[in-house]
Amino acid sequence: MRILLIEDEDELREQIAEALRERDEVVEVAASGEEGFYLGSEYPFDVAVVDLGLPDLEGQEVIRRWREQGRDFPILILTARARWQDKVAGLEAGADDYLVKPFHMEELHARLRALVRRAAGWSQPVWRFGPLVMDTAAQTVHVDGRPVELTAFEYKLLHHLARNAGQVVSKLELTEHLYAQDYDRDSNVIEVLIGRLRRKLDPEGNLKPIETLRGRGYRFALPRDEG
Ligand code: CA
Question: How many angstroms does the Cα of residue 58 sit away from the middle of ligand 1?
């Protein structure tokens, strides 16, 4: 997942970013409301974590402006305040969930995954596409009951494609979801990864889970089961 984190407390921001990166997530950070608002307006994110108490632009206002622009990624708010009014105001501004500080990183990560999953229209963590089954909690993949061993990178790639099943995802978008800003963004790497993913998921070549649309990108082509 590509996560935007807006938190003005340096130590906490670094702790959260590090904890999420250790869990293989891509994290972009902002220390102020203005900077965070800009990043969320200009770049694609799967989910945002927004501290409500920010020195320049309040978290609530950041969220309100994004929603006004039509930015629809899920948002989790962080608040140090135990006042219920703040949570309500944050949720009414357009946030989807909240955590009160201090919290456990494991809980934050689980909530973010759940938000992204629900935004993709799944109410539970196991995604079924006929013979291909992804358990997004355990991060495992099975095809026809056979476990498929994927690297963390391949899994992320498949997760992003499957989350957007039926839609064309450009190479640029995939690159942005897989790498942090300062990484190498060679799009040939995506081609190589897609090739590897296809061979692992579909060694016989009869399932064809990922289509290439020349000049446009890739599409996860298996129809999803209800649920
Ligand atoms: Ca703060």
Answer: 9
Q: Where in the chain is the domain with CATH 3.40.50.2300?
A: 2-119
CB neighbour list of residue 150: distance below 8 Å, 6 or more residues apart? 141, 158, 197, 200
Neighbours of ion ligand 1 (CB under 5 A): 8, 51, 53
Q: What is the pLDDT along the chain (227 residues), one digit of tens a residue?
A: 999 999 999 999 999 999 999 998 999 999 999 999 999 999 989 999 999 999 999 999 999 999 999 999 999 999 876 778 888 888 999 999 999 999 999 999 999 999 999 998 888 889 999 999 999 989 999 999 999 999 988 999 999 999 999 999 998 888 888 876 555 566 688 899 999 999 999 999 999 999 999 999 999 999 988 75
User: What is the 118 CA–ligand 1 centroid distance (Å)?
Assistant: 27
State in Å: Cα 48 to ligand 1 middle: 15
Task: Tell me how many helices (H) and strands (E) the chain has.
Answer: 8, 12
> Cα of 60 to ligand 1 centre, how many Å?
12
CATH of 126-220, one of 1.10.10.10, 3.40.50.10540, 3.40.50.620, 3.20.20.140: 1.10.10.10
Residue among 100, 99, 40, 50 nearest 70 (CA): 40
CA of 13 to the centre of ligand 1 (A): 10
Please check whether residue 72 is in contact with residue 40, taking contact to mean a CB–CB distance below 8 angstroms: no
